[in-house]
């Protein structure tokens, strides 16, 4: 079915479209760049033990797998996606203030669950606005989106230096202020009118298109990527706590997180030149092996006396274990899934990543409680399972595009 024609109003490019979207991306990732590395430290400072921290981190992951497609579908039907974005950002600002209430386990868990419902759709809705500008006005997506990566790096580094002065009690303050800035930027979001077709995470598209994607290659591959990605759950949930436990300062922790992102961005820049000739299976095998090497090395850095430089070296593997995984998944979808099924494929891959990440995050709390940093060794068999699934995908690879 062909797309409806754009109205004359929709063909008019909003003033400073690229600048306004760049500002949205620049503010969008600051809360995440603070929450991911430092929220576990705040939880620990409030007296929560490892298993409680794991539940507080994992429960929202299970929830958002269900709620995010529903809210992005709502944005597709709204008069303007920007209005939904502003409403969700305002709700995020309001709910993030809940962390200033008495931090009981039940209260923090409830706030985290409520917050994830309205927070997680920010990025796909912002992407939808930017991509509409790409289609209608020929805007450059990467020139707008790069400011999100830059702001995420800034949040990693600046957050570490702030916490080195104030302590972890500043984490809710930084998140609240970051949401306030993102809301202010959201009010400037360009209005583009009703979208012409569903966004990549539309629940309707998933329901109608998913059955045609239920073939061995796609399912093995997307599940394998999800499992390899999930092997990073122990890192995301507890590495900051571990680094602090061996005496590293908050500023160093922030720099270590930022270095991982820098290495990821470098891989994005180098991939076409050095890795584009490899098959998607080879790319994912490299990502899986990089993950295994990372989980072997992490517990050995400090006992072997490699110190902070050793952690920076291991963090450089983020370019392999994470960046190649992200690129490999998109490369597989681009090469084997027909355009009209791409949205459904993205939705299924999102579900796979989110579900397995939540499961392993939940298990990471007891692992850290009992094993400490040696819990990284438990991530090795998880990555191996992911590699086995990629191997099964390779055996069932199609000779033509699927999903038609």
TrEMBL record:
The chain crosses the membrane at residues 21-41, 53-75, 82-101, 107-126, 147-165, 171-189, 217-239, 251-271, 278-298, 304-327, 348-368, 374-394. GO terms for cellular component: plasma membrane. GO terms for molecular function: lactose binding; lactose:proton symporter activity. InterPro entries: HcaT-like, MFS_assoc_dom, MFS_trans_sf. The keyword Transmembrane helix applies. Keywords: Cell inner membrane, Cell membrane, Membrane, Transmembrane, Transmembrane helix, Transport. This is MFS transporter. It comes from Mesorhizobium ciceri. The lineage of its organism: Bacteria, Pseudomonadati, Pseudomonadota, Alphaproteobacteria, Hyphomicrobiales.
